[in-house]
Amino acid sequence: MRMPAEKQPTTAPTGADPLEYVRTLEAPRRRAHGELLLELYGRATGEPPVMWGESMVGYGSCDYTYASGWSGTVFRAGFRPGRAKISLYGLPSHEAAPELWEKLGKHSRGASCTYINKPEDIDLDVLTQLIRVGWEGGDGGC
């Protein structure tokens, strides 16, 4: 059963070009961060980027079904270059890769994503490894 229209996720794939989106970000540093993350996620997943909604860049997709029977599609991994923080999606839980999380650097975690202020605050090799672990089934995306 699909979700009723009023409950449907507002984030879905669009035809927008992720690189063009990144290049239109207001701050030059956010543009540079976006281009870096496009490259990192692309290399880690082996997938092309797709815009999901107006501000999320996703890689791959997967279907889900809630216990209630509602279902939908989400991207498996991705990021959102926000003004204050960058949101990273599809990374594994701490339990799935504790040694990597300990080495990542300055970050915080929410229910479905990890937040960083800027890529310079973290170890990018560790981030790439976390993306791969999540992508390969370490309970990150789907």
TrEMBL record:
Family annotation (InterPro entries): YdhG-like (IPR014922)
Residue ranges of every copy of the YdhG-like domain listed in the record: 30-132
A Pfam family assignment: DUF1801
The protein's name: YdhG-like domain-containing protein
Source species: Brevibacterium salitolerans
